[in-house]
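U., I forgot to send this yesterday:
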Amino acid sequence: MVGLVDIVVSAKDEGGLCDLCKGPMRVQKTFQHEGRTIEHGTFNVWETVYVCSDRCRNDDGTLFTKRAQSVVRAIMPNSIAGYDLMVFVGLERLLQHKQREEIKAELNEKHGIRLSSGEVSNLTGFFLEYLLRLHHARADQLKAVLEADGGWPMQVDATGEGGRGTLFVVMAGWRKWVLGAWKIATERADLMLPCMRDTVRRFGPPCGAMRDLGRAVSTAVDDLVSELQLDIPVLACHQHFLADIGKDLLEPDHSALRELFRRTKVRPKINNLVRELGRKIGFQINDARQAVLDWQAKDDTDYSLPPGRDGLAVVRNIAQWILDYNADLSGLDFPFDRPYLSFYNRCMIALRAIDAFLRIPPDDREVVSIIRRLSRTVSKVCCEVPFRQTVKRLHRCADLFDELRDKLRLAKDLPEKESVEDLDMMRNQFEAWTVALENRRPKRGPGKDIRDAVDIILKHIDTHGDNLWGHVITLPEKAGGGIRLMNRTNELLENFFGAMKHGERRRSGRKNLGQDLEHLPAEAILAYNLEHADYVNIVCGSLKQLPLAFAQLDMENRNRKKKWLPPQEDVNLEQELQLSTASLSSADKHLVRTDLMNQRIKKAANSRAPRISH
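Result:
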């Protein structure tokens, strides 16, 4: 890239007339400064500034001056960096999740611009400040579009990592726009409520609300609806509803099964056997793997094992099949997946298979000895009474839970499009199943585990049943009338958080994001709106015009300042969100971990302070 680094360009507009007195303008000064933009690279510019000949002054007392508009539109105030450079860095850092060194290398190679790592971080911070200002400045236009949709369903949720960096987000469900994001100390209703109030003030009241079953967010949403006197459905996420029931139903027995596996050390012993066989096979492992493939392709009725090295490889493969119980899982978290129950099931299947393989034992004592050793290790899951009792209870509860999943149609992925008829049918089936479940509940006798499981389900339905239905939203006449459906789950925000964390891990290279989320500004969440073409079209027209939109914000603020008007920034929630409810936040650690604090505490502990008698 051939830049303009050794070239000095001139920026000299015609002075024209003074906007205040309509008199002539004269040159006040001409000065040289550096500039860096994506369009021009690095360059030097001679800029001419004009002042009113009659020394007219703005409302704030400053002289009325005019700068070169080509410079004002290109370079940020009090900086040599251009708006387009700031936008480039911000998009690469926040949406492409590139590391600072990657951005520096690309700028130097393609645009002839050299930046330090600190400058990349600073430009990212400026980008977030401008993006938040633009989001607020275009609130009226965004609000008009949401009203034309017939309103916006409010979806709220918070995320963090290990109790750190809690981010609270309000999203417009139909448009998938993030309307607001804030950093809060902990998930508390008195911290979430001001955030939701601010969103409603800017974008109007929602036509419905979707939340999870957390006590804090439930209280905050109910308080918002109550104080605004809104007649809207407040819906509980079906996914979280099922997860809460599943944890209460399955957690005790699933944890007991996990402890049984740990106590009997079944998995470590199978692991040791696999490693031992791998060492015995040695460098012939590729030939052994081919032998396993040949054995797998044999006739289904041939249950014999090959002798020698090939037999050891087959036994190793059987043991690995047992360990690969995660392959039976759907990828969802507990309680939708029960990993230790899947492990138990594979152990039982493998035992029956080993019994078949030993009916016609191979003519190799070593192979027979190894597979019988595997059988002895795995047989603990069927020989010990606690295993059978725990699994029996777990299967009963899991069957009930899977029935409930089926009634709410969450046994698989959600349908892409659900109709009002689908929801009505689902609700009728769910209510009919609930009545049948009450009738199935054992009144007395040995069915205590089923009785307790039914009681758990009915208690959750009684608590959250009123918030499970009401997804049909009637649109006002000005929005064209008709109806529209809200999502049945908060999966939109859950997936959003998952994608965001994936990108942050790519950028930081760390698995645990506690530190990264703690230092991530809340405004960074707004950057994801720039992936939506409809949002971009409203706030700036296109991403290419985003630098100009930022420049116009600065020009508007300068004009307001000259007229003694306050900047267009208004309500700031920072003071309200300062409430610190975390037991040991990062800000407090800086106070606790000082040498002076250590010395103060230890000195007091070693002192003999006089006691005050009462």
